[in-house]
Design a protein that fits this description.
The chain is mainly alpha-helical. It contains 3 helices and no strands. This is HMG-box.
């Protein structure tokens, strides 16, 4: 069952910098086996679960490489959005 539909962003808040897990997931989503014709699309939760298993089985070298890529992405994000600070939304405001 799909989750609730997301509303389009109307504010101009910058995105959060991508972390190692998000970078890994973006790379590995292409490596998931294709579904057979006629099967419903995979839900994003199922995709994340499958890739989590892959992440947990990765070598420390691979994980360190993604941590390095995340640091680089964080530095680029800081240059693009100087003064950015992540402020999570309070539950009451959601």
């Amino acid at each position: 069952m799909p989750g609730p539909a997301r509303t389009p962003k109307t504010d101009d808040k910058p995105p959060r910098p991508r972390n190692a897990w998000i970078l890994y997931r973006s790379d590995k989503i292409k490596d998931l086996p294709a579904l057979e014709p006629g099967h419903p699309k995979r839900g994003q939760a199922d995709v994340s679960k499958a890739i989590s298993v892959m992440w947990n089985n990765e070598t420390t070298d691979v994980r360190a490489e993604y941590e390095r890529l995340a640091e680089r992405a964080k530095e680029e994000h800081a240059l693009k959005y100087p003064g950015y600070k992540y402020v999570p939304m309070k539950k009451a405001d959601k």
